[in-house]
Structures are given as C-alpha cells and as structure tokens.
Amino acid sequence: MRLGFIGFGVMGVPMARNLARNFPLTVWNRSPSKHALLKETGAQFAISETPAKVIAQSDITFVMLFNASAIESILAPDFFHALRDKTLVNSSSIPVEFNEALAWRVRVAGGDFLEMPVSGSRVPAEQGQLVGLMAGDSQVADRIRPFVRPLTRSAVYCGPIGSGLKAKYAVNTLLITLTVGLSESVNLARAQDLDLKAFEQVLEACPMASAYSKLKAAKVRDEDWSAQASLKDCYNSTQLIESAAAAAGTRSPLMQLCGKLYKEAIETGLGEEDMISIAKTVGKKAGHRLDTR
After folding, report:
1. Which one of 87, 116, 177, 244 is separated from 106 by 20 to 30 angstroms, measured CA to CA?
2. CA neighbor of 166 nearest in space, from 96, 113, 76
3. Which long-range contacts (CB under 8 A, 24 or more apart) does 154-162 make?
4. Where do the 6-phosphogluconate dehydrogenase NADP-binding domain residues begin and end (predicted)?
5. Distance between CA atoms of 102 and 22, rounded to whole angstroms?
6. How far apart are CA 211 and CA 258, in angstroms?
7. Helix or strand or coil: residue 132?
8. What is the pLDDT of residues 27-69, one digit of tens each?
C-alpha cells in the first residue's frame, strides 16, 4: 500500500514520520521548507508537486490541514479526478457540515472517504499514541485500520460522517477548560510565593493528576512555551465547540469564557506558542478585566 500525507503542521510532521517508517509515503505541504522537518528525522518519503499528485500516487491519503479554508484551497478539479478508487482520510479539525460536503464530493468522484480527527498533541503524535476518532462507512474504517496503527494507540469507530468531529468537540471541551483551569491554578500558586516544584508534587499526588497536568504544569514553571499544540489551534477549537454547542441546543458557558481568553491571547501575539501559554493571559494582574459580555 502506498500512502500520502498532506499538511506539515505541528501534528502533521510527526504523523507523517510515523507513517513513513512503515509504508511508502508521498507528501505535499504548501510551504516546501517544512519538508526539511521530516528529512531531519531520517524518514524516507517522496515529495509531490501538488496535492492532486499525492492522491494519484497513493492508495490512501491523509489530510491534516489547519481549517476548512486551507482544505478548500487544495480542492482543484484534478484533485477530485485523481480520487477514483482511492481513499481520503481527513484528520483536520473542521466544521461537521464541511466534512459532510467533502465526503459527498469524494464519493461522487468515485473515491472513499473517512473522517478521523485525532485526540492528542505533538508528544503523543511523536510516540504514535494518538486516539483516532473514526467516522464514515464502517467497512472503510475496518479496511484502513492497519494503516493508522503507526499513528494511534486506539482508533475508535464513532459512527457516520460527523461523529468523529463531534466526539473531538466534546473531548476538547474538557481539554480546553482543563488547560485554563491548570493555568489559573499554577498562577495562583506562584502569586502566593509557593515553591512550584513542591506544588507540582502536591498536584501529582491528587486525584486530578494526569500525564497532561504533569507535562503542562512543568512547561509553565519552566516558561517553556514551545508548541506541542499551538494556541491558535486551541482558539480554533473553541470556535468549533461553541458553534457545535449552539447547533445542539446546549449551553457552553465555560467554553465561551475560554474562547474570549484565547482570543485575547491571539491578539497579543501568542498564537504560535503552546496552548498552555494561556497562563500568560490568565496570569495578568488583577487590575486587568476580561470583557465577558
């Protein structure tokens, strides 16, 4: 089987690397300079000139782009022409409606479509320990399972198209509120002049402890803002979640507040930093008020 991969963001590079270790891989990225990030890992892969040629040269192609606009920009007629008898796996975090329309366009072109957003950030991506949230035709999902194993520790079939994204919105609701809560917790410890290493030991011994809290608390303590999952991606998630909650007729008061905090962080230039950089915004002096109207 020949695989293809489109999109070399924070998540795309380690995902492509893990696939390249196991299968022949053809790749494309809008900025060719990003290919060097994959070359540095020693992975063996071929670079294609266009997204359509990736499809043509591959049996299964994974797409991991920032948003729906980025995906729409690659959907030229030759892209769909190349899809006959091929499989497209979209791992991007986008609106359900866009993915449903894309799935229809792929089927009309004679191809198979699978939705598979992933839960996890750069570290689990590097370790091949992401959680795949599969949606679409269950037979297509079963057929591609061997080819997502290098990426995931679990690939869960969630239901028809849209179900994987809906599951991701729900999971990311917990992730984002946890990130903001952890930022506030560590900032309060610091403001009270507590020893942060001692506080981390307390946190680690508590029932709320997790691999995530341990990793992110250490990043705040060390002021390590290098992106494992970027703040701009996190803000994008808050917008998707708020829209999904509105469509489902449920309230999301915490997500609305988190969205305002992340928007403020974006506006102060933190977009490319790690999502835990929200601690800088949360930790502003008490005189600063966030507009929650």
Report:
1. 244
2. 96
3. 155/116, 155/131, 156/131, 156/132, 158/133, 158/134, 159/135, 160/135, 160/136, 161/96, 161/99, 161/100, 161/103, 161/113, 161/115, 161/135, 161/136, 162/96, 162/99, 162/100, 162/115, 162/135
4. 3-159
5. 28
6. 22
7. strand
8. 999 988 888 877 776 677 899 999 999 999 999 999 999 999 9
Tokens standing for 74?
Answer: 């690659």
Q: b/e per residue, 105-129, with b = 16+ CB within 10 A?
A: bbeebebbbbbbbbbbbbebbbebe
Owner of token pair 């991606």: 233
Residue 292 DSSP one-character state: -
Does residue 236 contact residue 117 with C-beta atoms inside 8 Å?
no
Q: Which residue has the tokens 């089987």?
A: 1
Pull the structure tokens for residue 242.
Answer: 């708020």
Residue 235: closest CA among 213, 253, 255 = 255
pTM: 0.90
Token output for 115: 């939705």
